[in-house]
Please model this.
Amino acid sequence: LGGAGNGTPEVCDGVDNDEDGQIDNVDAGGDGICDCLVIGTVGSIGPWSDGGNVFLDWLGARSPSPTIELGVEELTPERLAGINVVVVLRASTNELVVNDQVSPARAPFSEVEVKNFEAWVKAGGGVMTTAGYEDNEAAEVVNVNTLLAPFNVGYSTTNTALSSAVENWNAGHPVSNGISYVYAENGVVVEPGDGEIVARDEQDQVALAAEEVGEGHVLVFGDEWITYDSEWTGNREVELLWVNMLKWLTPVRQCQVPVPPELFE
Ligand SMILES: [Ca+2]
Ligand SMILES: [Ca+2]
Ligand SMILES: [Ca+2]
Model:
């Protein structure tokens, strides 16, 4: 985390105000989420939760920087500028309606959007993708794979049989710190390509891959249940996993704050 600092208060301005070696490392609440971190979401939360969105609520309570919900908007350099981490939620080209909850269709990512996104990641952006929202990998997974193609990592388009216990974690990777088990449901097997394997399911299939690209970071996770209320209340490791992931997705000299010890209890 760098040195002790010079006594000047750190503020969210893109400058290392206290000269401790870290830019914008502010965490007033000591919750492990940098208060200057700007998170964007692409697509929409899946319809299988009970209507809640603990993921966004949880972030909102831990960082005063509002989450930028890009939804189905075009990915332009202007829109991506200033965002540190993008979480890709359901970005299927199909609309999905479950119990009156509408998850809208997202247009296929265009060549221009893919190039814009690649440039943003290489310049220091972090992206985490999710999958397994529906049994229609042609619409869902193919679109996310398009966005991930420049990094040669993505999802299987044929194997949607990720098993429910993601229980083999690569202890050598920072994202695995303190994690032993996460539940998945109807997930999609990850094709790691150039990525490093971080987690496997009980059948040894890849569930999470990580890749460093230029100054940026990519995480590909084979399910979406970690974005739902039920998983947050049932397994405390889900919160630690998100803290670990957001920390790893952020540039090494920016916004790095300590993970609170109580998250390991
Ligand atoms: Ca600093
Ligand atoms: Ca600053
Ligand atoms: Ca915080």
Summary: Residues 27, 29, 31, 33, 35, 62-63 surround calcium ion (ligand 3) (CB under 6 Å).
